Amino acid sequence: xxxxxxIDNFYERLVQDAINATREEADTADYLADVMCVAxxxxxxxxYRHPIDMMFYLADDELKGMKEKSLDAVxxxxxxxxxxxx
Length: 86
What we know:
Layout: E1 8-9, H1 10-21, H2 29-41, E2 47-48, H3 51-57, H4 60-83
Helix pairs in contact: 1-2, 1-4, 2-4
InterPro entries: ComFB
Pfam families: ComFB (PF10719)
Protein name: Late competence development ComFB family protein
């Protein structure tokens, strides 16, 4: 097992949730993948080994703030990707 397989970035889950919440009918898989990359690059990484660690040690206010930051990053990323499509 690789060390990379032993960790995850919590923001990946939150950004995926924000993308699903803002999904539009015309969204393609390629467009959404680009949105996810741009959004994640605008957020700080938050790595963990076990999901229970994040849920146990993360305060409710902190989780709420992370969700808000994720949604803002996705909205900004959608605009950026639309403006820079090839």
